[in-house]
Amino acid sequence: MLEVKETGLQSMLEKAISEAKENHTARMISMTKKVNKTNPLLFIEAGKKLSVDRTFWSSTSENFSIAGIGCAHEINAKSNRMEEAEEAWQKLRDEAIIHNPYKTSGTGLVTMGGMSFDPLMQKTSLWKNFSHLSLTIPEMLLTQSDDNCYLTTNVKVNADDQAAELAQRLNKMERMLLNPSINLPGEVGIEMKQEIDPETWKQTVTYATDYIKQNYAKKIVLARKLFVKLSDEAAVSSVLKKLIEQQPNSYVFAFERNGDCFLGASPERLVKQENDEVLSTCLAGTAPRGKTKEEDDRIAHSLLYDEKNRSEHDFVVKMIRQSMEHYCRAVNVPDKPVIYPLKNLQHLYTPVTAVLNERYSIFDIIERLHPTPALGGVPRDESLAFIREHEQLDRGWYGAPVGWMDSNRNGEFAVAIRSGLIQGDKASLFAGCGIVQDSNPDEEYKETGIKFLPMLSVLGGGNHESH
Ligand SMILES: C=C(O[C@H]1C=CC=C(C(=O)O)[C@@H]1O)C(=O)O
Ligand SMILES: [Mg+2]
């Protein structure tokens, strides 16, 4: 990567164009500057006018967000997807001309995106706009970290581009996106909710417990879908605002592809990297919140000592520990879980810290960790085969890693749960649960019901039980 000191956009473009002419190849330039404090959701809303894909990530507990508009470059990968994606990202990074005087994570050349849960599953039309892996480098990127905001402009320059014209277009786009005089659109409501055949789903849970009792697998995570018809087209910016307000301790994300938008508020970190320090999270085992402090404490206490939930959780801890030990040193995993409280439910939670060995990257960790037994099962291959055969659902990007990385070995990926695919005035919500030997179909059905609530409530229907 070529780090440059110049600050003028036009002069950087001129330099890149002349290099593109010399080398007969396009050049990516990335230029970062500090801007006045800006609401990232207004930035996202302003981007709607451009009819391009928008991207959003926020870590609500850290006061950190990245909002992206448009796409300067997309990394797509299919069969050997993590390896292909890493190669493409490295090449792009090595060849980019970067001006970023700031050390803040998530500024400069950043790529954001996700992948499907299972690359071996045939895509259905529901997820037609989402490829098996897609990471984009947004054209305009607003990074908000505590009280600071940074704007990064990324553009791929060709030999026949005109620097002055390009600079003018980008400046105009910047002014439009940072224009604070727009409002977030109003809320939508839910017109109709439709569960997909509850009895068949419960029957599948029974198959899974039988399968486990016969020793073919130890844990299998099964998901289901809730279809929702909205009163109007949902505005991504307003839905994100509500998710941020209502779901502390979560990663709020949105990825638009051709008008469809996959978004959610996931409490589950897959991996965070800051230079060579990595964090992961074991999150599995679920109970509702209590209505009073006493009831809440009582539920939390019984969750901590409940054998079925502890076994769901312990499979995840064991697998994540082993995976981290493969690529990291100083892997630290506490002996027992603690409670992770969320608005609508509480989980068993074990944090994992480690130091990444030099020759490995966040791609290696994602590849090894996904899917953890919080979304797949144990053993991995057997549980995935069961899911493929019996689940009757195209998970698409649900349950898969989504996140971002920058060119300075920082990045974070969450597991895309508590999420839904919004297509105009329709939404498909997804929720799953870990099935172990003593799972009860009705209880698991109820558990998935609570897991729909975070999304239902931001779409205007959280207070009602689903039918
Ligand atoms: C699969 C989901 O949750 C996972 C994460 C936390 C707890 C889980 C559980 O207790 O079953 C699931 O493994 C989901 O929310 O769709
Ligand atoms: Mg569970």
From TrEMBL:
<dbReference type="GO" id="GO:0009697">
    <property type="term" value="P:salicylic acid biosynthetic process"/>
</dbReference>
<dbReference type="InterPro" id="IPR004561">
    <property type="entry name" value="IsoChor_synthase"/>
</dbReference>
<dbReference type="InterPro" id="IPR034681">
    <property type="entry name" value="MenF"/>
</dbReference>
<dbReference type="GO" id="GO:0000287">
    <property type="term" value="F:magnesium ion binding"/>
</dbReference>
<feature type="domain" description="Chorismate-utilising enzyme C-terminal">
    <location>
        <begin position="198"/>
        <end position="451"/>
    </location>
</feature>
<dbReference type="GO" id="GO:0009234">
    <property type="term" value="P:menaquinone biosynthetic process"/>
</dbReference>
<dbReference type="Pfam" id="PF00425">
    <property type="entry name" value="Chorismate_bind"/>
</dbReference>
<protein>
    <recommendedName>
        <fullName>Isochorismate synthase MenF</fullName>
        <ecNumber>5.4.4.2</ecNumber>
    </recommendedName>
</protein>
<feature type="active site" description="Proton donor">
    <location>
        <position position="268"/>
    </location>
</feature>
<dbReference type="InterPro" id="IPR015890">
    <property type="entry name" value="Chorismate_C"/>
</dbReference>
<feature type="binding site">
    <location>
        <position position="312"/>
    </location>
    <ligand>
        <name>Mg(2+)</name>
    </ligand>
</feature>
<comment type="pathway">
    <text>Quinol/quinone metabolism; menaquinone biosynthesis.</text>
</comment>
<comment type="function">
    <text>Catalyzes the conversion of chorismate to isochorismate.</text>
</comment>
<keyword id="KW-0474">Menaquinone biosynthesis</keyword>
<comment type="pathway">
    <text>Quinol/quinone metabolism; 1,4-dihydroxy-2-naphthoate biosynthesis; 1,4-dihydroxy-2-naphthoate from chorismate: step 1/7.</text>
</comment>
<feature type="binding site">
    <location>
        <position position="447"/>
    </location>
    <ligand>
        <name>Mg(2+)</name>
    </ligand>
</feature>
<comment type="similarity">
    <text>Belongs to the isochorismate synthase family.</text>
</comment>
<keyword id="KW-0460">Magnesium</keyword>
<dbReference type="GO" id="GO:0008909">
    <property type="term" value="F:isochorismate synthase activity"/>
</dbReference>
<feature type="active site" description="Proton acceptor">
    <location>
        <position position="219"/>
    </location>
</feature>
<dbReference type="InterPro" id="IPR005801">
    <property type="entry name" value="ADC_synthase"/>
</dbReference>
<keyword id="KW-0413">Isomerase</keyword>
<keyword id="KW-0479">Metal-binding</keyword>
